[in-house]
Amino acid sequence: MDRKTIYFDHAATTPVSSEVLEKMLPYLKGNFGNPSSIYFLGRESKKAIEEAREKVANAIGANPREIFFTGSGTEADNWAIKGVAYSNRNKGNHIITTSIEHHAVLHACHYLESDGFEVTYLPVDENGLVSPEDVLKEIKPGTILISVMFANNEIGTIQPIKEIGKIAKDRGIIFHTDAVQAVGSVPIDVNDLNVDLLSMSAHKLYGPKGVGALYIRKGVKISSFIHGGAQERGRRASTENVAGIVGLGEAIKIATENMEENNKKLMSLRDRTIEEVLEKIPYTRLNGDRYKRLPGNVNFSFEFIEGESLLLMLDMKGIAASSGSACTSGSLDPSHVLLAIGLPHEIAHGSLRITFGKDNTHEDIDALMDVLPEIVGRLREMSPLYEKVKRGNQYV
Ligand SMILES: *Cc1c(COP(=O)(O)O)cnc(C)c1O
User: Fold this and answer.
1) Which atom of ligand 1 lies closest to the CA of 77?
2) Which of 61, 179, 333, 350 has its CA 20 to 30 A from that of 154?
3) Which CATH architecture has domain 18-257?
4) Are the beta carbons of 216 and 68 closer than 8 angstroms?
5) Residues of the chain with CATH 3.90.1150.10
6) What does pTM read for this prediction?
């Protein structure tokens, strides 16, 4: 990074770690062969892909034959949802998901609704938790798929995946989980959890952008999504992103091996930030479950301010974080996740997500706490509502 930045947005993306880059480089240069070619260079690429497949499989307790590489986490989600929907249409047209999924799942479901499928979007409680009983209640004879994310990218809440997996398994319904935020942060065993399909992405765990994977349990009926060549055993065509796949394999391996140690550090940063912010800044709430949450995630709502202004002012101090507004879509609508946990629009607007990574330090939090209370205070000075509260009028 040229300009000195304190980076607090690891849920958005992470840098490629030097260990991962080292493993990738040979496949961008000398070992550039097409994995489908039968000569030495091609075979070397093929071997690298199969080694990566093994690493990914090991990280989630799967068989390497059940791992299929994709072009992203978004593609893995789209494949899981549309692939199951279209190949199981003879059994029914009903899908159960939640109202706090990533747009890769939500928009795939909206698309299916436009094509005759029926989708139930489960509500969540005030901490963002899905209730397994709610899943059970919504199941009907035509239910062909349940898709519940492992951990939420905005508020960090970790869902009761094992309970939901058991419900799905007992009724013979295919169960997909978007584990893009969870892989490498939460121990995962697809057999223990009864998960049938699981989405991953490399760039959320110090791998490269533009590569992901979908775990597909042996025997699950799912149609192909990208048609063309015979790559990925004929199920996902196109010449493989060899370097990217190698990067994903190495990144998952490293993240899984270092999970415990990393999490201990992330949780100490997280818990300190939660305590200090709640103590030093009044009219603030923590979004997401206090304990069932990703080790590196904090998400606050500050009443009487706009998250966008807060982000810009933090940026001027060299701090990169995220807010709950869907700024990617160019709109300033508050996040669907924050609305789903019951926040009123104006409070959802004033939110801040900080997601820690392996290179953050307590000095980074010192720097944050040096400026955050003051910035929030200054923004509140501009709010007419806050004026009223300060004058002792009742909060309206
Ligand atoms: C980032 C993310 C995705 C999308 O992954 P890409 O590789 O960026 O397409 C999907 N789901 C969740 C929960 C994410 O955080």
Assistant:
1) 10
2) 61
3) 3-Layer(aba) Sandwich (3.40)
4) yes
5) 6-13+259-390
6) 0.96
pLDDT in tens, 174-203: 999 999 999 999 999 999 999 999 999 999
Ligand 1 pocket test target in 153, 198, 241, 245 with most atoms within 8 Å of CB = 153
Residue 204 near ligand 1, beta carbon < 6 Å: yes
Could you list the residues known to form a binding site for pyridoxal 5'-phosphate, using ranges: 73-74, 153, 181, 201-203, 239
Q: Is 148 a pocket residue for ligand 1 (Cβ < 6 Å)? A: no
Active site (catalytic) residues: 327
Distance of CA 180 from the midpoint of ligand 1 (Å): 6
Q: Is the pLDDT of residue 327 over 70?
A: no
Tokens of 269: 């940063």
CB 239 within 8 A of CB 37: no
| CA-closest candidate to residue 246, choices 32, 389, 86 | 32
For 67-87, write each residue's pLDDT tens digit.
999 999 999 999 999 999 999
> 6-13+259-390 belongs to which CATH class?
alpha beta
Chain mean position to CA 306:
24
The residue behind tokens 């992470």 is 14
Contact between 294 and 158 under an 8 Å Cβ cutoff? The reply is yes
Q: Measured in angstroms, how far is the CA atom of residue 329 from the centroid of ligand 1?
A: 15
